[in-house]
Structures
1.
Amino acid sequence: MNHKVIKILKELGLWKTFVIVMILRSPFDFLNSVLNANMLESFIRLTDQRDSNNLSRTFWVFLLLTFLLFAYNASIWATVAVKTDMMLHRRLRMKLLESMLSRTQQEMEEYSEGDWITRINSDVDKVADYLTAPINFMHSMIAVVNFVLSSVILILLNPTLFGISIFLMIPFFILSSIVIVKNIPKFRKNAQESFARYTNWMGPIVESGDAIAVFGGQDIVLEKVREESEKIMRENVKAHKRTAWSSAVTATSGMTGYILLLLIGNSMIGTKVRDIAELMKITQYRGHMMMGIMCVNAGINNMKTNLTGAVRVDEILEGRDDREIIEKKAS
């Protein structure tokens, strides 16, 4: 997690609460992986044995366990996570409002009206999205837990097929999650700054439209609005292209690895792999590992996008802290 986001959470008094929510939700993906992998293995084996009685009983057992798992996750989400998200929005906006009210007129004029509006609305939403929106930090951490624990089980089941899976995953992950998305924060920051300037020019249109018409300023104002709109679009398109390339690389890794795992695993049946049921179980764990990697990859892309909001919010809060230090020293 970015240090600026941690700083904001601590300042809002939500750091411990967020950690507790994350711990409570972290086992969900892994337990779901275990259920799916063992369910598929059991169904294939029982079907092959034509054991319809046990097949029916196994179905209801797995159905009950799946229901309980999703009920647990929904309960945590509804009772704790949503309330934490609401508190984050409310407390962060109050902190920014307090910062605005504590400033002198000269200090307020350091930022334009559009910039203030963007920071207290759009940037606050980005901070919250960084942490809890699908798919961001919370989901990425859950995916990491799933990836690590699923990897451990796959190593125990078949070290060779685990090695093949990791050999294909890691290089593609580095390429898609680090190299390709490197400049996304810069593009998003530029878009946010252009949006602030766009908001500045929209103000006069709403508040002083008649005056602009009297003095013949419509063309100037509309030209400025058009320029800023195009800048927002250009920067967002750059970010979207990087995200699309990242997703394409990750998908290629997943498809290539799955085919290779089936080819090599099929040749091991009867030796290192018991039967087709066990091979399918291995592919399930490998599939959930891949889902974890893809979730982390998407989370990194989204966090880089939303980090611009945290940076801009922290800039305001940091300015307030600096003034408080100066005032204490003066007194």
2.
Amino acid sequence: MKEVKKMLRDLSRGVNVKKNLPRYADAFVDTCYHEAVLKLTFSAYLLYEQKADDEEGMWDSPDAAKWFGETESLLRSLLELADKPYSAEAYGGLAERAGKVHGQIRAVMEVYMYYVDCLNCFNYVLDRLKFRYEDEAEQQRQMNDINEENFILHLTRFLFEPDVTSVRAVRMRDVIREIPVYMTKNKLFSHITQTLSTYVGSERISLERYLYILRSASTLSRPDESVISENRLGPWFQQLFHMDFSTLDLDGFMEILGRLEEETNKMHEIADLYIQLQEIVNEVCALCLIERHTEKKTDVYADCMEILRDVTEGIFPEIKLEGLEGKIEHYVEISYYLNASLPEIKNLGPDGDSSVASVMDYNEFAMISDLLSDSLFIDLQKEEGEGEILDEKMVNEAARQFTDQLSQLFAEVPKEVKRTVMSLLLAELPPIFQNAEEFVTYATTNLFGCQNIAEQKAAVSSLAHLMAEEELFDVDWSDPDDLLV
């Protein structure tokens, strides 16, 4: 590991590029070769074992059966090639097949990710309505008993005391999502435009990826549902997008809540299934691409192939699998550093007669890196606008198109959905307050200035639940003193 880090430091400084580029390429191939085959072995073992233990019949559904069959076909083809002399054409063909299946499963997952976005939205809507059916006087008494100053003080500590930036960022997003929104459409759009303006001078692909996050939060990413043959929820969601929630009685509320819980649980199961399938597809594809860069068949590779043959025949050799435990961590650690340096490697200038192109296929290495990353459903095709640098006019046009879509959505949905989308969207944008003092003003005004007592209680309850993880509050509403800490 020390040698790898030193090599990467030298490359970042442009030292001994001619010597270190081949060393980088060799390290990358060896590391990804073992990482891919080990990941594939554990992924396939888990998937086949779960399928064998399936008691709910999820694997009998048409879509699950179809995509499991496609994935299994790729795995069996890989095992057949492992027993034969290397053929660039055969491995290239299998990599192409795997890449195609990757794209098809990605299209399926885009539908389910949209469903998750909608479920998040309507779960939020119902969360804000849940106390509407309780006695209003009792709710008012509970809220009057809260020490607002202390509550905001603890909320501020919850946000600003952590030293770790990533922890603060997650908490900020979660808190902003829960605080009621009182903002005009024009102010929101201005905040969006100002945020997107920071992408002037950046690559278009960076802006597109951020806009994808914003569209998801806004439920604007509506994919083609025809790629799935079951579990289609689009028509039901369209009913909810146009429902008059102000007239919803308790029975109707409980009916929708029950279905939301059922569909949310189902989406988790479906997502887990496709994540496992995509992992295997990606790992098969990565191995096929790596094969042309190495001729060695190590003991680890041989052991993995043996386990994979057993697994595809319904045999689960636990003892053999245990023999591989602890090996993958080594390669994953090295892979982290090699992958992090890959974009920098691309920009290395020639050193003597050496260049990146003469030592390695950068685009193929980048694809292998993507296939073995945590971003399982990344688009492997060259994305439109990749490498294009944005000017102010381009960014303003992108902002206008997005805000126009939002404006149309807001004109079509009830106010409960509109305010929910605004909350979820604000959580993905930079905070509109700059420091703790401004946050206190924002939270006090929007939270305790909320005139809808049921919504106010729902927001306070959700925030108390967040802080309960740090033992700041006990959220049992039977004792109002619990919120007086």
